[in-house]
Amino acid sequence: EDPSLERHFKGHRDAVTSVDFSPNKKQLASGSMDSCLMIWSMRPQMRAYRFVGHKDAVMCVQFSPSGHLVASGSRDKTVRLWVPSVKGESTVFKAHTATVRSVHFSSDGQSLVTASDDKTVKVWTVHRQKFLFSLSQHINWVRCARFSPDGRLIVSASDDKTVKLWDKTSRECIHSFCEHGGFVNHVDFHPSGTCIAAAGTDNTVKVWDVRMNRLLQHYQGNAVVNSLSFHPSGNYLVTASNDSTLKILDLLEGRLLYTLHGHQGPATCVVFSRAGDLFASGGSDEQVMVWKTNFDAADYGDVLKTQKSGTSVGGAHHTLQSEKDCGVHLKKTKSQDSGRNHVQQEEETSLANTLEHIIGQLDVLTQTVSILEQRLTLTEDKLKECLENQQKIIQNKAS
């Protein structure tokens, strides 16, 4: 089956800028240029909450991993933390000196990273609500910043046409990816933490390996890409573009699977639910849409295979056809599986989760080792320089 439109939320009075599902999938948060934050109930006939507090456009929203808080960033230069209940109380963080474009919780829910037009990325503690530090090497607006799944790295995307990778502990920029031909609107980590995807005004989506810092995939579209989200399996990527479409890319095959037409005008934001069975999108048309993914459950079985191979995406350059893509379907892999009993499936799921966790830990180790290797290389280079300089000094003295 193709992805299908499931729900349609109307209530914002201006362009929607950002959407996010609560972890339990019962609620959906959206931010808009109308300065409001809306919390929609996924259950039919339940009323939505409209949270008022920001003095200007809300640029970004995100649920905390526990679902007890929603963070929002605004053109009024503040970050707010809301309790998504009837009261809708919020606390205000002030440290940025310009529009806040992006908010993101670390996976343990302890930290928050924000990105702003003041050219900085800032990190905060959630519970003590304290500003911790700034990362400031971008030379233009920073549109997006995300923690890696293990919380050790931060990635940021900017109008200076770079994507920067930061070490959270040392607060240093480890690498700058400069291959974008335009501003970088959005960036996110692959669930494995081994690669990142970035969307740009040059109509491209690029996927990089953050261990080798090399370009793995390059998708050329025909409109500015505003937002993207990885499917939890790591095998698919959904994008939202100015040509009003959402596109689903198959990262294993390196091709476009679906083009979805729902919004009138630019599609501004898109996100998968934590389970991957739904995704939500928002647009300049003031609408929030929820889509059923309808991927075969069997496709989720690929998760482990890809996580095992470390990098699940091969190095290739892809050009997307824009018109012919609607007929492309997912490979159906329902064979004799349908008769299996639930117990077996549950056992397999918990085994899969355990394996995934172990693989995650291994990935962390791999990353640490690669960072150590990089540092060693740097030290060796420095040593070599020192020795060469010494030789020169000795030679000069001798002559």
Automatic annotation (TrEMBL):
One GO term describing the cellular component: ciliary basal body
Record SMART domains: WD40
Pfam families listed in its UniProt record: WD40
One BP annotation, GO: microtubule-based process
WD repeat start and end residues: 9-50, 51-82, 93-134, 135-176, 177-218, 225-259, 260-292
Stored SUPFAM superfamilies: WD40 repeat-like
Gene3D superfamilies: YVTN repeat-like/Quinoprotein amine dehydrogenase
Keywords: Coiled coil, Repeat, WD repeat
Protein's job: May play an important role in centriole assembly and/or stability and ciliogenesis.
Protein name: POC1 centriolar protein homolog A
